[in-house]
Every structure is written in structure tokens, then in C-alpha cells.
């Protein structure tokens, strides 16, 4: 079965455990994830089954929205509530205007350093394994994109917390955002709670709970996130056999989020895969989930 499984992952459950649960229902068929969700976070986790596992990159590239409660006044070694406090300064002297002004500066592209306790690989090894073995991995800053940051609940001066809704691109760590806000305010900060509420047009209210018998989402729903084209049976066979196809005869290209430049989703009688523009009105195959 080539499909997606939308999971409402609870706190304290690892993404790999969710993969194992779906694999068990499918009697061992191939199952993968499209980017993990921290065990300390909850919310939408998208899994892929069968040959759809080839499409992981195209789901990871979709914009995501998170709800985060940030606790000011201390820093932890994990940048969230699960870690040990490494510095406590309190939030009594937090400059609220400086904090609110700084939020607007995060919009757009900026450099961000991932937290040491993360799956980012350094010389082929996950950073969290190096950090937990007593090493101090060098976390290089990399570009990330914040589409929008909105305040959901005003800053609570009694608890030192602020609830945000964050729309961001691939590779963004909300834990690092909390850490950076703590550095800006000078009092430290970490994630108190984190929920992923959407990935592309997939939302949390569509997701299965782990108590459910999993419902599978067709790949045609993934296609709605991208510019897409419907091709003939003849061109479908050519595309599946690795040949570029001429698209000038197709008038309609459905609009999507178009999050990857030069990429188009290709459908026929069913979902086929992704291609890229190759000049002279041709599309060449990149990845397919069917085979002739």
C-alpha cells in the first residue's frame, strides 16, 4: 500500500514507536516517517507506507505550524522542559517591549544553530549521542525560514510564559527559537510545551490517535500541496519508464503551495510522482511510486 498515515503523536512517545505500530498493522510492510517529532512534543506526525517512503523529502519540505509555550527565566541543556537547568536567572527583569520587538525580527530567513540534543548529524553521528556521551558537539548555524510568528496568549508576568503560533520551513527547531529569545531577553528560556498542528495542508484534526485502527490518506492529498498536472495514460507509461514528457498540450496545471522551485507533481489515473522542468516545456521524472 502506497499511502500516508497521519498520527496524533502524544508526549513521551517516540516517532519510531509510531512507525512500529503502523508496521504491525500492515504485517511488516515498509513504513517510514517524514521527519521526526521530539518525544517531548506532541501533534501531527506523518508516516509513509510502501513505495510512498520515497516521498519523505517532499513532505519534509512543506511548511509547518507549531503551538509553543515558552518559559522564561532559565536555560536547560535540551532547550525544553525535559532537560536539566543549567542556568536560572528568573524573569522579574524581563523587558517585555524588547521581547515583543524581537519577535518581528525573526520573520524571513535567518541563521539558526540546532540544539545539541538533536538528530542533526556531525561526522555521521547524531549530535544527541555525542552530547550524551559527554562531548560538546559544534552545532553550525544554518539558514531557516520563519513565515510568521503570532502571539496566542499575552506574556504572563506571573508565570513568565508566552504562547506562540509559529509557521516555519524545513529544518527549523522551535527549541532553538526559545533559546534565542532567552538570549535576547537576557534571562534564558526553554520550551514548556510544543504541539505541531499542521504540515502543509495536513492538519492535526485529521490525524489518527494511537488507539485507533489507522486510516490511510491517499497520495492525491499530498499532490494538493504542490503545483500538479494530470497526464494521459500514454505519457504516464513514458514518465514511469524514466522518460521526460512534453507538457505544452496540457492546459491546466493546478496550483499548490509550490514550496520547491521547479518541482511539479504528476498524476494520471492515480498519483504517479514528482518531476522537474527540463526546458522546452518538458518535465523529467525525479521520483515515482508506481512502476510499469
Query: Count of DSSP E strands?
Result: 18
Strand % is 35-45%
What structural class do the secondary elements suggest?
alpha+beta
Q: Whole-Å distance between the termini?
A: 16 Å
- Order of secondary-structure elements: EHEEHEEEHEEEHEEHEEHEHEEEE
Largest sheet: 9 strands, mixed
Total tally of structural domains: 3
Helical coverage, percent range: 10-25%
**Mean pLDDT across all amino acids:** 89
CATH homologous superfamily of the largest domain - what is it? Pseudouridine synthase
Query: What's the Cα radius of gyration?
Result: 21 Å
The CATH architecture classification of the largest domain is 2-Layer Sandwich
Anisotropy-based shape: elongated
Name of the CATH first level of the largest domain: Alpha Beta
CATH topology of the largest domain: Pseudouridine synthase
Low-confidence stretches: none
Amino acid at each position: 500500500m502506497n499511502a500516508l498515515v497521519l498520527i496524533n503523536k502524544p508526549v513521551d512517545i517516540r516517532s519510531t514507536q509510531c512507525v512500529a505500530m503502523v508496521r504491525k498493522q500492515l504485517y511488516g510492510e515498509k513504513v517510514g516517517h517524514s521527519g521526526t517529532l521530539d518525544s517531548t512534543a506532541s501533534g501531527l506526525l506523518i508516516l509513509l507506507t510502501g513505495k510512498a517512503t520515497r516521498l519523505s523529502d517532499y513532505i519534509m519540505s512543506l511548511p509547518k505550524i507549531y503551538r509553543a509555550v515558552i518559559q522564561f527565566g532559565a536555560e536547560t541543556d535540551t532547550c525544553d522542559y525535559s532537560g536539566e537547568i543549567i542556568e536560572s536567572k528568573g524573569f522579574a527583569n524581563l523587558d517585555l517591549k524588547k521581547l515583543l520587538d524581537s519577535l518581528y525580527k525573526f520573520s524571513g530567513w535567518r541563521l539558526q544553530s540546532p540544539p545539541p540534543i538533536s538528530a542533526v548529524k556531525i561526522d555521521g553521528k547524531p549530535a544527541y549521542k555525542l552530547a550524551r556521551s559527554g562531548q560538546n558537539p559544534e552545532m553550525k548555524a544554518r539558514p531557516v525560514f520563519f513565515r510568521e510568528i503570532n502571539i496566542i496568549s499575552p506574556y504572563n508576568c506571573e508565570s513568565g510564559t508566552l504562547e506562540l503560533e509559529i509557521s516555519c520551513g524545513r529544518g527549523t527547531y522551535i527549541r532553538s527559537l526559545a533559546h534565542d529569545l532567552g538570549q535576547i531577553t537576557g534571562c534564558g528560556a526553554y520550551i514548556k510545551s510544543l504541539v505541531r498542528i499542521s504540515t502543509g495542508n495536513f492538519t492535526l484534526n485529521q490525524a489518527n490517535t494511537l488507539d485507533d485502527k489507522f486510516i490511510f490518506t491517499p497520495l492525491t492529498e499530498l499532490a494538493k500541496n504542490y503545483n500538479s498536472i494530470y497526464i494521459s495514460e500514454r505519457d504516464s507509461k513514458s514518465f514511469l519508464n524514466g522518460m521526460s514528457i512534453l507538457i505544452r498540450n496540457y492546459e491546466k496545471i493546478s496550483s499548490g503551495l509550490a514550496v520547491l522551485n521547479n518541482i511539479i507533481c504528476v498524476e494520471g489515473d492515480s498519483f504517479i510522482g514528482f518531476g522537474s522542468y527540463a526546458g522546452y516545456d518538458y518535465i523529467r521524472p525525479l521520483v515515482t511510486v508506481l512502476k510499469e
